[in-house]
Write a structure and sequence with these properties.
- By secondary structure, this protein is an alpha/beta fold.
- The protein folds into 4 domains: 326 residues, TIM Barrel; 86 residues, Immunoglobulin-like (Sandwich); 79 residues, Immunoglobulin-like; 99 residues, Immunoglobulins (Immunoglobulin-like), CATH 2.60.40.
- It has an 8-stranded parallel beta sheet with strand order 12-11-10-5-2-1-14-13. The protein has a 5-stranded mixed beta sheet with strand order 24-31-30-26-27.
- The N terminus is likely disordered.
- The protein binds 1-deoxynojirimycin (2 copies) and calcium ion (CA) (2 copies).
- One 1-deoxynojirimycin (NOJ) binds next to loops.
- GO terms for molecular function: cyclomaltodextrin glucanotransferase activity; hydrolase activity; metal ion binding.
């Protein structure tokens, strides 16, 4: 069962992508180093606060009140930079841990101003941009950035940049000399600032109270100068800026504060990315403990972007860190998210980050970190590990959770857990693609199984550090046989015996024990594991990963339409989106021998290049419980299907009731017809009377259409 695992480990990372596969020979689905930019499901992401990792070049450090020598003031720059990351890539710290992707702080130039607060806060975190087309000089030059990308790629590591296009920097409406007044530069040329903003580059609606979605989008997040994405200059500027970074060869984008930007503009941004150089993109939509938000699910399913999986992260913290829930709650979250997210395997999971208390609590037991990492790395989703977790770094709240990296010890148990499970993630597709099934549960013990075709991973976890449990009556999909723990007993895992009916012999699960048992075998039938990206246009290329496709070229269909195949191997197919009408499609793979896979649902074909248009309707008076929606004659406006109408529209910040508005991603340069409707809580629909509104959308810029409700 493990014959191919050792092959993979000893193989050169870079060459493994070209390894030939036959039906009888089992090779990894996603070997590290193939740098697949649209499928991260077999990766392990490592999140680096660049300023806090390694100072590889002291000559680029700021001086004076921007800098804290020895990082004694955690709100100052501490010297970390891209050269420091390059050093850690080259000395093997990241690759030996099994890291296959890094997520780094926003690389763009940030404010040089120091805040006039108690600590003299600075932009060390990268979220206070001033010029999205220049680098943060304290992290390095553009050529340093290029060297970072090249060094990472040479070791099979993908590079994800943080990108924060919601805002520039802290600004005050009334005091132009507060910080840098949110000023924006275009590769060195001043564009504008927050006060006297005659071009409307920014919103001027005060700070959000976080009371509802609209309020959070169109008012400032804290005191951050909030971009008006409908401004034609800003729209183009931000889309041009991301292309500059895409041209540097980045492999992914982590989009900051997606809950605080218009959905429509973000969808048009994603279309731009997928049309240019497609990369895996995931947004940050913060959810508190136990918070469930249907807008969050809608965003993950319809924006073209994945999300950080806060439901997963918060729940695992409750179970393993805060003791405010147990495995029943965790299992419920696993089931609920599997149905809430169309592609749950594309959401980015984590146990902590720079905005929460570090998982390792001050009085915590490092064993809990090890257990949490084991669960994270064997669960569905793209796992992200916050720098220093493997060194059991502590720190509650920001900035104590962002201390300088304390050590680079390759022998911590956490480091070894990551190492072991990283190879398993790359070698057993059940971890990338599989469903999750609960097999045995009580409040302390969770035994779950991931399965994809014949590939199976069974994981048993005991969170109690004092109690043992006798595990009887456990069933598994593992074929009969003896299975040794894939963690090599790092967390005390047993060997288990499985009978012919899947019954596992009784065994003891000791305090804090984690066992991982696996089986893998070649598929004789095609199964699709992943498709990326899940949104695109006619002519875009898609990557289909899975098993059992066979070595001879077969057929890929979008609905009933055959796509042209660009490349075909047993585990990976590249196709071109065929010339089909915009809409959602099921994709199937048929082998040359005629066997057809199960459908992979929900691929969205857009009408054309997208632009963000603000639709405004005046005098739309409603009864209590009614809301206004928008529907029209293109896929992006629901194709006249009122259950797919856009909305509910907003009516409080940019315009006020009885005027309603919404920013929508629509096809460019197209004459479209639309109407507004009123819907009540039970779904009853009232149509506007009169003829359809007609509007020709702009080409590669934003637009606004403003009409009166037709009574
Ligand atoms: C969320 C980021 O993760 C956080 O650290 C930052 O301060 C805000 N967005 C604003 O950019
Ligand atoms: C994962 C589901 O398991 C699969 O059935 C579905 O086709 C894809 N997501 C796409 O929605
Ligand atoms: Ca430095
Ligand atoms: Ca905003």
């Amino acid at each position: 069962m493990k014959r191919w695992l050792s092959v993979v480990l000893s193989m050169s990372l870079v060459f493994s992508a070209f390894f030939l596969v036959s039906d009888t020979q089992k090779v990894t689905v996603e070997a590290a180093g193939n740098l697949n930019k649209v499928n991260f499901t077999s990766d392990i992401v490592y999140q680096i606060v660049v300023d806090r990792f390694v100072d590889g070049n002291t000559s680029n450090n700021p001086s004076g009140s921007l800098f804290s020598s020895g990082c004694t003031n955690l709100r100052k720059y501490c010297g970390g930079d891209w050269q420091g990351i390059i050093n850690k890539i080259n000395d093997g710290y990241l690759t030996e841990m099994g890291v296959t992707a890094i997520w780094i702080s926003q690389p763009v130039e940030n404010v040089f101003a120091v805040m006039n607060d108690a600590d003299g806060s600075t932009s060390y975190h990268g979220y206070w941009a001033r010029d999205f087309k220049k680098t943060n000089p304290f992290f390095g030059t553009l050529s340093d950035f290029q060297r970072l990308v090249d060094a990472a790629h040479a070791k099979g590591i993908k590079v994800i940049i943080d990108f924060a296009p919601n805002h520039t920097s802290p600004a005050s409406e009334t005091n132009p000399s507060y910080m840098e007044n949110g000023r924006l530069y275009d590769n060195g040329t001043l564009i504008g600032g927050y006060t006297n903003d005659t071009n409307s580059y920014f919103h001027h609606n005060g700070g959000t109270t976080f009371s509802n979605l609209e309020d959070g989008i169109y008012r400032n997040l804290f005191d951050l100068a909030d971009f008006n994405h409908q401004n034609q200059f800003i729209d183009k500027y931000l889309k041009d800026a991301i292309k500059l970074w895409l041209d540097m060869g980045i492999d992914g984008i982590r989009m900051d504060a997606v809950k605080h930007m218009p959905f429509g503009w973000q969808k048009s941004f994603m279309d731009e990315v997928y049309d240019y150089r497609p990369v895996f993109t995931f947004g940050e939509w913060f959810l508190s403990e136990n918070e469930v938000d249907s807008n969050n699910h809608f965003f993950a399913n319809e924006s073209g972007m994945s999300l950080l999986d806060f439901r997963f992260g918060q729940k695992l913290r409750q179970v393993l860190r805060n003791n405010s829930d147990d495995w029943y709650g965790f299992n419920q979250m696993i089931q609920d998210t599997a149905s809430a997210y169309d592609e749950v395997i594309d959401q980015v999971t984590f146990i902590d980050n720079h905005d929460m208390d570090r998982f390792m609590a001050d009085e915590g037991d490092p064993r809990k970190v090890d257990i949490a990492l084991a669960v994270l790395l064997t669960s569905r989703g793209v796992p992200n590990i916050y720098y220093g977790t493997e060194q059991y770094m502590t720190g509650n709240g920001d900035p104590n959770n962002r201390k300088m990296m304390t050590s680079f010890n390759k022998n911590t148990r956490a480091y070894q857990v990551i190492q072991k499970l990283s190879s398993l993630r790359r070698s057993n597709p059940a971890l990338s693609y599989g469903d999750t099934e609960q097999r045995w549960i009580n409040s302390d013990v969770y035994i779950y199984e991931r399965q994809f075709g014949k590939d199976v991973v069974l994981v048993a976890v005991n969170r109690s550090l004092s109690k043992s449990y006798s595990i009887t009556g456990l069933f598994t999909a593992l074929p009969s046989g003896t299975y040794t723990d894939q963690l090599g007993a790092l967390l005390d895992g047993n060997t288990i015996q499985v009978g012919s009916n899947g019954a596992v012999n009784a065994f003891n699960l000791g305090p804090g024990e984690v066992g991982v048992w696996t089986y893998s075998a070649a598929e004789s039938v095609p199964i699709i594991g992943h498709i990326g990206p899940m949104m695109g246009q006619v002519g875009h290329k898609l990557t289909i990963d899975g098993e059992g496709f066979g070595t001879n070229v077969g057929t890929v269909k979008f609905g009933n339409t055959v796509a042209s195949v660009v490349s075909w191997s047993n585990n990976q197919i590249t196709v071109t989106v065929p010339n089909i009408p915009a809409g959602k499609y099921n994709i199937t793979v048929q082998t040359s021998g005629g066997q057809v896979s199960a459908a992979y649902d929900n691929f969205e074909v857009l009408t054309n290049d997208q632009v963000s248009v603000r639709f405004v309707v005046n005098n739309a008076n409603t009864n209590w419980g009614e809301n206004v929606y928008l529907v029209g004659n293109v896929h992006e406006l629901g194709n006249w299907n009122t259950s797919k109408a856009i909305g509910p529209l907003f009516n409080q910040v940019i315009y006020s009731y009885p005027t309603w508005y919404v920013d929508v991603s629509v096809p460019e340069g197209k004459t479209i017809e639309f109407k507004f409707i009123k819907k009540d809580g039970s779904g009853n629909v009232i149509w506007e009377s009169g003829s359809n509104h007609v509007y020709t959308t702009p080409t590669s810029t934003t637009g606004t259409v403003n009409v009166n409700w037709q009574y």
